[in-house]
Specification:
With about 425 residues, this protein is an alpha+beta fold. It has 20 helices and eleven strands.
């Protein structure tokens, strides 16, 4: 059989050989499994490794981390570990079987064989393995027809209760369908619709749903994914009042364009958390208090909650930008918003030319402006009173934003001009403006 390992990047090939040798010396069976096998067959880029051991995965991961000088993290409850090296990671797990106490519950896991481990997976295309054992190194193990389903571009579950055991597989089916341009197999689609009919997604812990939502919104062109979810179920699993209409999807498409524009024009700015902008579009029509409750219930991080609520609360105040303004006025209005919020406003107000120009002005000219003059400099100049430094520097900063001067000397000259010479010696600030 073909040695599939040869399609891995060289760095991963070396790590696979090292892991193979360590497993062999410990008397363990070792395999690449899941998405990496699928992506190798599809000749897609590989960023991480996913390994299953018939044996003690934590022990092997510890030894591998020492060999490749990577960081090591273990999870005893699931018999899993992660080895980090550079920007990549290796997930290592003990082969296991799963049982569910009720629909949508987290599984109870028990060590098992590779065959049992593969049958518990979501779809046949993700239930293949590649041996890293010496006697059949690099050979494909396909017990459930995954290779044929890949050729036929078909998403197929492994057993009839799959969507009820883990309803998040509904969202994953849509994700793989759209990502690869595949079709959901007829019987699988029927079972998926049956699970949706009994509101199976509502049984899932909101934190797990949050993770699936983020993965969908991180996909390339999430418009397609959101359209598909909306046509099948809507977003009742988040909140029954979410209604996405034509305008909602037009906004999503404009966000795509705005993100592309940002990435190409502002390459030196920080990388966006693009998925947050799309989530804000999904939640946009809900009242602010309901948005806050959803974000709390799904346990989004504090910073993520702040960005999304600031988009909702700032949507109408930001309309004041749709006129010619001084640079300092633009700065005051926009400085408290994240780049994600600014991109949302840019997409939302697509027909407000002056507003968009002011957003561009902030991103292009204002966002990195800083004062070189500090409080300690004022103290050296015997500037009084001491408790006015914050106010003085703020006023000076806005003056710099409007006038555009560059050097520290320019700032000192401006300070004298604004507050007058006597301010350096008296207890009173004299405003000469």
């Amino acid at each position: 059989m073909m040695n599939r390992i040869k399609n891995l990047p060289l760095q991963f090939q070396e790590i696979s050989k090292t892991a193979s040798s360590l497993a062999d010396s410990a008397g363990m069976k070792i395999y690449l499994v899941g998405g990496i096998v699928r992506d190798l067959i599809l000749k897609r880029s590989i960023f991480d490794l996913d390994i299953v051991i018939e044996g003690n995965a934590i022990e092997l991961a510890c030894r591998l981390s020492e060999k490749i000088k990577g960081q090591f993290r273990k999870h005893h409850a699931f018999g899993t570990a992660v080895v980090y090296f550079g920007e990549h990671k290796i997930d290592i797990a003990t082969a296991r079987t799963e049982s569910y106490s009720h629909n949508g519950a987290l599984p109870k896991v028990t060590p098992a064989s590779l065959e049992d481990d593969l049958i518990r997976r979501d779809f046949t295309i993700n239930a293949m393995a590649i041996s890293l054992n010496k006697d059949d190194y690099g050979c494909l193990i396909d017990l459930y027809g995954g290779f044929e389903d890949l050729k036929n571009k078909s998403i197929k579950i492994l057993h009839s209760k799959s969507f009820l055991d883990d309803p998040t597989r509904i969202l994953r089916a849509i994700r793989f369908e759209q990502r690869f341009g595949f079709s959901i197999e007829r019987d699988t689609f029927k079972l998926m619709k049956e699970a949706l009919a009994v509101k199976a997604l509502k049984l899932v812990n909101p934190h797990r749903l949050r993770d699936e939502i983020i993965l969908i919104l991180k996909e390339h062109k999430p418009y397609l994914y959101l359209k598909r979810i909306n046509s099948l179920e809507g977003f009742n699993f988040i909140d029954k009042n979410i209604r996405l209409d034509k305008n909602s999807f037009r906004l999503v498409l404009r966000i795509e364009k705005a993100v592309w524009y940002y990435k190409n024009k502002y390459k030196n700015h920080r990388k966006l958390k693009v998925w947050i902008i799309y989530l804000a579009a999904v939640l946009l029509k809900l009242p602010l208090e309901k948005i806050k409750r959803i974000l709390n219930n799904f346990a989004f991080k504090r910073g993520e909650r702040i960005i999304i609520t600031s988009i909702k609360s700032g949507l109408y105040p930001i309309k004041k930008l749709n006129k010619k303004l001084k640079m300092s006025a633009i700065y005051k209005m926009l400085n408290t918003y994240s780049f994600e919020s600014l991109l949302f406003f840019y997409a939302y107000y697509h027909d407000q030319r002056q507003l968009r120009e002011n957003l561009d002005c902030f991103l292009d000219k204002l966002v990195h402006i800083r004062l070189e003059l500090k409080g300690r400099d004022l103290k050296k100049m015997n500037f009084k009173p001491l408790n006015s430094y914050s106010k003085v520097l703020t006023e000076l900063f806005y003056f710099k934003v409007d006038k555009g001067f560059q050097s520290k000397k320019d700032e000192i000259r401006a300070l004298k001009r604004i507050f007058g010479k006597t301010a350096f010696f008296d207890d009173k600030i004299i405003d000469k403006r």
